[in-house]
């Protein structure tokens, strides 16, 4: 189950409660689900009950309980819990994680590239505007008002982010052109030319795209090719994921999505509880969530004209990849023979590498095979 599918499932539960008069509220256009603020609180959370409580004239936890009962047993949802003043926390089934890996690997370069609804001619709603609702298969198409001739194909989120990234660079450091995903100075002021000459194309783009629009650009003296540099760390994680596939091939096995499991005998469990199980589970949950939310991160970046959101998502994904990889290595340790769990971990690592490479290319930054 993807975040968009979970959102639609929760929306259907609200609509059902309204239709059966358990709740008397306007049905919202869209339900927002997002990773919980703390590990161990499920895979996703929603504050929909708090949003509906005032309109319903009932306590938020009471509204949450109505929705919880309707959501229990829904396909793909293992557990629904109420937290705090009325948050709904969702734990998805193990099959959802395997399905996610299969989806990422199947879509490959196309994962995360989808249309932005309601955006025509490259226009995107600016900051502070309400996002368009996700399509709901239970409802018929909304004909809407007569808007005249079809404005043409809807741009993908990827196209919008690419255009906005170039606009951000132009605004920050003069006029540049994109040629094959690389920045090529065209009659540029000396500052941009010097920046590219000093830092290289990849670091220059990262430096200009990493800050939010209202934040200053901080230019390093020179690029640092080590993990303390976020750009290098993301590129290194993407390259490491590819290298794992090459090493596995040399060992005579390939990837196969499945249960990645907890640390097995002979593996270092790193920091955390003595058996490493909680730390491993939390790392895995965070990593899966970041892979699942990559498409929505791209869509949000397009709607808000904020390529820096893509940068932050890639940094978080690379960090989660290394934390999980270090606790549950995809390759056998020592004399250990390849097991089914290693094939599953390799598939997850490849999915992570796919997301990181897609995001880097989206920003016009290289995703090298070797680093």
UniProtKB/TrEMBL annotation:
<dbReference type="GO" id="GO:0005737">
    <property type="term" value="C:cytoplasm"/>
</dbReference>
<dbReference type="Pfam" id="PF03485">
    <property type="entry name" value="Arg_tRNA_synt_N"/>
</dbReference>
<dbReference type="GO" id="GO:0005524">
    <property type="term" value="F:ATP binding"/>
</dbReference>
<feature type="compositionally biased region" description="Basic and acidic residues">
    <location>
        <begin position="136"/>
        <end position="149"/>
    </location>
</feature>
<dbReference type="InterPro" id="IPR005148">
    <property type="entry name" value="Arg-tRNA-synth_N"/>
</dbReference>
<feature type="domain" description="Arginyl tRNA synthetase N-terminal">
    <location>
        <begin position="4"/>
        <end position="92"/>
    </location>
</feature>
<keyword id="KW-0547">Nucleotide-binding</keyword>
<dbReference type="InterPro" id="IPR009080">
    <property type="entry name" value="tRNAsynth_Ia_anticodon-bd"/>
</dbReference>
<dbReference type="GO" id="GO:0006420">
    <property type="term" value="P:arginyl-tRNA aminoacylation"/>
</dbReference>
<feature type="domain" description="DALR anticodon binding">
    <location>
        <begin position="234"/>
        <end position="371"/>
    </location>
</feature>
<keyword id="KW-0436">Ligase</keyword>
<dbReference type="InterPro" id="IPR001278">
    <property type="entry name" value="Arg-tRNA-ligase"/>
</dbReference>
<feature type="region of interest" description="Disordered">
    <location>
        <begin position="111"/>
        <end position="157"/>
    </location>
</feature>
<protein>
    <recommendedName>
        <fullName>arginine--tRNA ligase</fullName>
        <ecNumber>6.1.1.19</ecNumber>
    </recommendedName>
</protein>
<dbReference type="Pfam" id="PF05746">
    <property type="entry name" value="DALR_1"/>
</dbReference>
<dbReference type="GO" id="GO:0004814">
    <property type="term" value="F:arginine-tRNA ligase activity"/>
</dbReference>
<dbReference type="InterPro" id="IPR036695">
    <property type="entry name" value="Arg-tRNA-synth_N_sf"/>
</dbReference>
<keyword id="KW-0067">ATP-binding</keyword>
<dbReference type="InterPro" id="IPR008909">
    <property type="entry name" value="DALR_anticod-bd"/>
</dbReference>
């Amino acid at each position: 189950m993807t975040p968009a599918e979970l959102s639609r499932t929760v929306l259907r539960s609200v609509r059902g409660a309204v239709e059966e008069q358990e709740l008397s509220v306007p049905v919202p256009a869209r339900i927002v689900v997002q990773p919980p603020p703390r590990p161990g609180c499920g895979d996703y959370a929603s504050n929909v009950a708090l949003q509906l409580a005032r309109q319903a004239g009932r306590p938020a936890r009471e509204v949450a309980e109505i929705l919880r009962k309707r959501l229990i047993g829904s396909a793909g949802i293992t557990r629904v819990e109420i937290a705090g003043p009325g948050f709904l926390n969702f734990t998805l089934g193990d099959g959802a994680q395997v399905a996610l890996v299969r989806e990422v690997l199947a879509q490959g370069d196309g994962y995360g590239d989808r249309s932005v609804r309601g955006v025509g001619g490259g226009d995107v709603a600016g900051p502070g505007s309400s996002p368009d609702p996700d399509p709901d298969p239970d409802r018929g198409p909304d004909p809407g008002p007569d808007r005249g001739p079809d404005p043409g194909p809807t741009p993908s989120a990827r196209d919008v982010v690419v255009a906005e990234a170039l606009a951000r660079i132009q605004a920050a450091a003069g006029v540049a052109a994109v040629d094959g995903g690389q920045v090529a100075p065209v009659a540029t002021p000396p500052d941009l030319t010097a920046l590219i000459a000093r830092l290289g194309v990849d670091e220059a783009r990262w430096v200009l795209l990493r800050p939010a629009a209202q934040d200053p650009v901080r230019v390093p003296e020179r690029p640092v090719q080590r993990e303390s540099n976020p750009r290098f760390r993301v590129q290194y994680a993407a390259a490491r994921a590819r290298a794992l596939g090459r090493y596995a091939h040399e060992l005579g096995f390939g990837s196969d999505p499945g249960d990645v499991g907890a640390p097995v005998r002979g593996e270092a469990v790193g920091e955390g509880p003595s058996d490493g199980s909680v730390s491993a589970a939390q790392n895995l949950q965070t990593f899966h969530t970041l892979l699942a939310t990559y498409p929505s991160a791209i869509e949000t970046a397009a709607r808000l004209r904020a390529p820096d959101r893509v940068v932050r998502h890639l940094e978080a994904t690379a960090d989660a990849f290394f934390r999980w990889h270090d606790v549950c290595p995809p390759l056998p340790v020592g004399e250990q023979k390849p097991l089914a769990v290693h094939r599953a971990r390799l598939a997850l690592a490849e999915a992570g590498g796919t997301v990181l490479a897609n995001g880097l290319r989206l920003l016009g930054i290289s995703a090298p095979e070797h680093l």
